[in-house]
Design a protein that fits this description.
Layout: H1 6-43, H2 47-60, H3 68-71, H4 77-118, H5 123-128, H6 131-147, E1 151-155, E2 161-162, E3 167-172, E4 178-183, E5 186-193, E6 196-203, E7 210-215, E8 221-226, E9 231-236, E10 242-248, E11 255-260, E12 266-271, E13 276-282, E14 284-291, E15 298-303, E16 309-314, E17 318-324, E18 331-338, E19 343-348, E20 353-358, E21 363-369, E22 376-383, E23 398-400, E24 405-410, E25 413-419, E26 425-432, E27 438-442, E28 448-453, E29 458-466
Protein name: WD40-repeat-containing domain
Keywords: WD repeat
WD repeats: 203-234, 248-280
Length: 467
Amino acid sequence: MQKVSESNIKKEYQRKVNECIENVQQAVENSFKNIDAKLDELLNYEFKSINIIAAQQQQESPKINSNILLNFQDDNFQQQICQELTSLIEIKIQKEVQNKKQQHQQLIKETETQWENLIKTNDSQIQSNNNSQIIQQSSTLIITQSNLKPFNYQLIPQNSIKQDQSCYAIAVNKDFTILIAGCNNQIKVFEFIQGILKQVQVLSEHGKNIHTLNFMKGSDHFISGSVDNSIIIWARNKNNQWIFQQKLNGHTGSILCLLLNKNEDIIVSGSHDYQIKFWQKSNGWLCSQTITDHTSTVYGLSFNEQQNRLISCGDDNIILVIEQLELNKQWIVIQKITVEQFGCRLCFIDNNTFTFYPYGKDYINVFEMNNSNKQYIKTKDIPVKSGNIYDNSLFPSQYIKLKCILVNKNGQNVSLIRMKQNGEFMIEESIDFGTRNLFGYMTDDGQYLITWDVKSKEIQIRKYQEK
């Protein structure tokens, strides 16, 4: 772990000292005319009286020098006040600097071991981030993990709603008041009314099945991707109705996966046309770049925590690691990982770790960054139930940071896997739906798991419960 530079601490506190001194000097100069008469009157007292007063002040506050008044001279009284105050401020702040340094060093010492176990540090990342912020994030995550308990997700029967049409994509808004489902070529909008899920609107702009849905958290918008090769931006109007806002055309194959960055000014799309497209928000949305390194269908996409890297997987047994350049903000492929079996799902855990689920296998691969060459390599496997049955490409993997839960569909099962403090993974629950035709989504806070499967033909909601 790279420790905070002592010289940087000194520079920062010296800057604060100088700033404080300048402010005090300015205040003294501005108010000198107002107190001049009082100070002259004070200086006309006999020195004996002054010494008595000074002695009394020293008894009440030993930190104040009682001889200050005796050292002042009439001819340069204002300057001497500033000098004396400067001396006092510097002594006080020097002590504060020393205390802060000791506290900071102690904090580093206490968290260093836990931090090294939690994350294999990427040196280039540390150089570009504030070290104290990294320590704070590490401590917060460690505290969060230590408070986590075993859990399961319990079905809420009253919120299940019958849905005969296939629902390939599901999403919920940030305050869990609206649920949308891609039912064949329609988007059905549901609201939670007095705790019960009720359908309120149907949107029919897409010509073919809808495979992906994403709500925006900073505005009343969501995006949809379809087999008709298009992406649509939807907005809510003043009448509380969802309306078509913009259609993004450019792909020549089905849209299978969509991502939004945290700033919600970039959309990334993966398609059956082998392409990954970046859509930039300006006056509307425009395609700003296309990645063409895949040689078959693109099934999965995931951003890292820092949002400067993207991973993708497809039907070509390749995982792409794509990075955004600082200078021109263009995205470039920095690593191609060849895997033995193609996969449909992958998910960043943090900046240095991601998971990849090989198609039909009974394990999930874990990839971690090698600190020496900054390349991702497979380091371990997580055993899961799959039955080695034919799967489908929808229902993307998610990592819920607040609860340290990885959500992964494998065959007819949904595995809920907890990342432990030592970096190991443990399956907390595996839900068997009895069918591979299973689609769903977990809310960002990990409170609700929402699914549709062909066996129950229901949109089902399960709630997080600690044991």
